[in-house]
């Protein structure tokens, strides 16, 4: 064998070091994504939270890379300690944030943010130390194989490959199957595994091998214990946060879904925000659906956007003229849950099993853009505009699409937050609907779980009060209907600019108005 061929052979230790680059890159990105996702779930406004978390994380990584220049002695020992610290802190971060959010009072959002960004900063510094240390180990061990450019090229190739794999796997495989807490702990174990093989690979040059081996064993044991008890921890944290027994919980690719059961009834939470309480949801859903459908007269084709719990569909099916209902819901887990789980299916009267239903799991904005069907009534039941992903569904661009799918004599109705608590936000939605040329008729209803809640009818013809309502309603009546359209002075119209897709001012307004409630 020639000297050149011998030099070209890859040493097993070199492969292990390059594999460690892949692993630490994957772990580092998982911690970054987990922090951003948790911040979005727990604090709202996904774009703001992801932007600030990623910015803080990258800055901390840069600081860690700069600090690596001061590591001059015991290179292997320092690398080992860094891996153990990253594994312990990064792996435990999602669990720590869940527990902190459940334990801190609602008014302590500032303290939670300090913890969040403190953990992001510490993990970022440690992750920033990793790659420079690995590069120096490679250069020291295999100096005959590497010039600087080849070393950087090789290391960055594995670094970016690790980031690519995790970027795809995180939303599609890891979070749906493991959940955020177990995902963090699993990758913490991978960091610890890197420390264990480094302990074995460089055992001859570690002065305190037994002590380091004990530290590795402790970290691995803690992470394994956390992984095994993740479900119990999540249950404890969410039961404490929601104050009732949690009967269903799941992190889908789109949101955290939690259903609780208490003496007063069943509640649904999405990303920590209450969506309905079974004791009074009928008030909300009757007010949402019937003023529009009854005024239309005899709607045959109805479109529901959102409303994956099937409650709005239940009310729509009370109109005998309805022949087909198309329900467009982004999250398939929502529609599966409220169709297949007996206790929840009973709440919507098994509406999601109706032969009149055509169920579509898709983004409502995209679906409207790609279809040209026209409907007699459109019921828009989205969550509040807490972030830009939802805020686009309250924009002029979206309502233009709604207009294109609404029959000339039809009505659309939009759930539109509280005109009392978020007065500016409510009238912003009214102004946005008017900006696309539709007539807007606002109204409100009292729902005890939410307080005063607002809705807006949108149409090309003036709204006229219906002469009949479906039988068996528990809240709405013909005599009481006019009161819903009267706004007292503290909810009366205020000047507001339309919400446009390019700026999404509604999200900022909504966050500011509801933020004052929790101060």
TrEMBL record:
Statement: the UniProt record of this protein carries the keyword Magnesium: no
EC number: 2.5.1.16
Source organism of this protein record: Ideonella alba
Catalysed reactions listed for this entry: S-adenosyl 3-(methylsulfanyl)propylamine + putrescine = S-methyl-5'-thioadenosine + spermidine + H(+)
Alphabetical list of NCBIfam families matching this protein: PRK03612.1 (NF002956)
This protein's record includes keyword Transferase: yes
Underlying gene: speE
Known role: Catalyzes the irreversible transfer of a propylamine group from the amino donor S-adenosylmethioninamine (decarboxy-AdoMet) to putrescine (1,4-diaminobutane) to yield spermidine.
GO terms under cellular component: plasma membrane
Residues bound to spermidine: 285, 309
Domain PABS positions: 228-460
Membrane disposition: Multi-pass membrane protein
Binding-site residues for S-methyl-5'-thioadenosine, renumbered to this chain: 255, 329, 363-364
Entry protein name: Polyamine aminopropyltransferase
Main location: membrane
UniProt record, GO biological process: spermidine biosynthetic process
Localization of this protein: Cell membrane
Alphabetized GO MF terms: spermidine synthase activity; thermospermine synthase activity
Keywords recorded for this protein, A-Z: Cell membrane, Membrane, Polyamine biosynthesis, Spermidine biosynthesis, Transferase, Transmembrane, Transmembrane helix
Record InterPro entries: PABS (IPR030374), PABS_CS (IPR030373), SAM-dependent_MTases_sf (IPR029063), Spermi_synthase (IPR001045)
Residues passing through the membrane, by range: 15-41, 47-67, 79-102, 114-134, 155-174, 180-200, 212-230
Pfam families, alphabetized: Spermine_synth (PF01564)
